[in-house]
Amino acid sequence: MYMVKTKHWTRNTNMSEPEHGGAPQAEEGRVPPYISFKTLLTLMKELEEHGMPNRIDRSVLGRFSGSSGSQLMVALRWLGLVDADMKPQPALNSLVEAFETPEWPAALGSLLKDRYRFAIALDLSKATPSEFSDAFRKFGAKEAVAAKCKRFFLQAAQASDIEVNQRLLQRAKPQRSPRQRPARAGSQSGESPGPPNSPESRNPPIVEPSHYDLLIEILDPAEMSEEEQQAVWTLIRYLKAREDD
C-alpha cells in the first residue's frame, strides 16, 4: 500500500470499498469540501433541470470556473455523491430528487450526518467554536482552507434539519477588511465640524469610494475562486503602489 499526495488531500490507493456497495466512507486524510455551499446548490439546480448524466465530468461542469469546477469534483467525491470514476451514486440521485421540495432539509441532513460524523458527534446545539475547530483540525488543512471547510458545513447544516447553535454560526461569517472612515468635514484644515444639529452634521459631504476601496469591498473568499481572489489582490497591490508613489 502506498500514499499519493495532492495539494489538499491524500488518497489511499488501497482504500477499501464498503461492504454493500456505493461510495467509500470519508477518510481523515481527505479535506472536507471547501467550496461555497451556493456552488453545490447551483449543481443541484443544473442536475434537476437537465437530468443526471452518466458521470460528472468537466463537460457537465462547464458553467463553473476552472478552480471551482475542480474543487466541486473533489467535494462530490468526499461527500460520497460520486464514486472514484465520478459516476453518480444513489445519494446524489436522492438529493436531486429532494431539491426544492419539503424533503430537502431531511435529505441534506441525512447526508451530512453520515459524512460529517466527526462534527455531528459534538452535539452542534451545544458545541463551542474551539471544539468545532478542533474537529476539523485533524485534516491538516491550512487555516484559510479549514475556514472554508467549516463555512461550507455550517451553511449546509443551516439548510438541513440539523440544529446548530448561534456561537458557531456567528464565527463562521467571513470577516471583511475594515475600511477607513472618511475624515469629517473641516478636520484637515483644523476647523470644528460644528454642533451635532448643524446643517453640516445632518448633511455630511458625500465621499466617493476609491477604486481601491471598491476592490476591498467586493473581495469575498467565501464566494470567489482562488484565481478570482488572486486577480483582485493583484489590482489592489497595483492601486496601493500608485497611491504610495
Short descriptors:
245 residues, mainly alpha, two-stranded antiparallel sheet, 11 helices, disordered N terminus
Oligomer kind? single chain
Radius of gyration: 23 Å
Number of helices: 11
**What would the average pLDDT be, to the nearest integer?**
76
Helix and strand topology:
Layout: E1 3-5, E2 10-12, H1 37-50, H2 66-78, H3 90-98, H4 104-115, H5 117-120, H6 129-137, H7 143-158, H8 166-172, H9 199-202, H10 211-218, H11 226-244
Helix pairs in contact: 3-4, 10-11
Give the gist of this structure.
The protein has helices at residues 37-50, 66-78, 90-98, 104-115, 117-120, 129-137, 143-158, 166-172, 199-202, 211-218, 226-244; strands at residues 3-5, 10-12. The protein is mainly alpha-helical and 245 residues long.
